[in-house]
Every structure is written in C-alpha cells, then in structure tokens.
Amino acid sequence: MSENWSDYVGYAASVFIILSFMLKDIKKIRVINLLGCIAFVIYGIFSGMLWPVIIPNGILCIVQIYHLIKRN
Fold this sequence. Notes:
- By secondary structure, the protein is mainly alpha-helical.
- It has one domain.
- Helix content is 81%, strand content 0%.
- The chain has three helices and no strands.
- Helix 1 runs antiparallel to helix 2 and helix 2 packs antiparallel against helix 3.
- The protein starts with a helix and ends with a helix.
C-alpha cells in the first residue's frame, strides 16, 4: 500500500493536536495547536478538498492567531 505525502501531513497534524492537549502554558498550547490546524488544512486541500477538515481547522487557525496577537 503506497501512502501519499499528504497522509504524513495528516499524521503530523494529529500529533500536534494531541501534543497541544498535553501542555500547560497557554501560549505554547495555541502555537502547537495552530501548527496542527495548519497541517490539517494542508492535508484537507491535498487530499481532495476535504471541506469538513478544511473549514473548522481554518477557523481554528484564525482563532489561535487572534488570541496569540491579542495576548502580546
């Protein structure tokens, strides 16, 4: 079974999201979660425009960026 490179991006996104739940510092949580959301958006785009993956993760990217900027 040959895996597409976008599958690896999806796996990395999952790792980032899980890792963000293990952290305590809110800024680190937001940064790691943002990386996961970005990776999920990329995965969704390159896996055939998976809108149920792209839309919520795109919105979460905006939320995380807003809170990171607002916090500083």
